[in-house]
Amino acid sequence: MPHFDRKTRIIRAVLTVALLAAGSALAQAPPAYSPEQLDKMVSRIALYPDPLLAQVLAAATFPDQIPEAAKWADQHHYLTGDALAKAIAEDHLPWDPSVQALLPFPSVLEMMASDMAWTTDLGNAFLAQRQDVMDAVQRMRQKAKDYGYLRSNEQIIVRGGPYIEILPANPAFICVPYYDPLVVFAPPRPGFAVSAAISFRFGVMIGAAFRPWGWGACRFDWGSHVVFINGTPWGRVWATRGVYVHPYHLEHWDAARRVESHRLIERSVHEREEARLGHRRVEEHHYH
Known about the structure:
The chain is mostly helical. The protein has helices at about 1-25, 35-40, 50-60, 65-75, 80-90, 95-100, 105-115, 115-130, 130-145, 180-185, 250-285; strands at about 155-160, 165-170, 175-180, 200-205, 220, 225-230, 230-235. The protein starts with a helix and ends with a helix.
């Protein structure tokens, strides 16, 4: 009987490990969003200028960092230009540079932080279905353009062709468009002034001081479905999301990242030691 009990325990342990492994594999499966879901998902940012859109999509792949970044941006909203860039650098912030790149845009970070389910879904979609996300952006832009809402003005340049680009009229001044997706992606009502549907209430001067965070070198190759962040193709995908690090040359971020990595290693060692001691206590209990 003791032999049978031991054999049963072994079988149960093997089955438990197998079930845990299967559950883990299912949890790690990439998401799959339909075109309709992606259209709705990107609708609130599809009309952002390309450089800002690129940074938002990249930052959304680090959703856990967004709330703290939004808090920092709100606390430093009175800073602009070189003073803001200096404060970001001196604080040795541990967040990904794409997240730090949005610190001059507290309203964008607040929008992302206030709806973390949306931000997380957007990041996951960008990791798992980048081509589909970019296609969705183009579909929504085409709708807004066809209905007469999306057009060049003093703040943005809208370029047509096979793909619609939205570029800042002044490359050093990035404006955030404000619009209602329920309005700009639907036929205008009779008598509605389409020119008033998109407003630009907030803009940021992004000078040379912000180049370390990729500004001035962010764009899309829409035809090839490639996103360039800081002048380099953004290669973070679902399978590499836990290990991929974009090749930024940002000395203060590298230092902060080393500190964070050291902290995570120490925590991992501590957790393993706790687990080992706990396992030993369980064995001793069974032995006695």
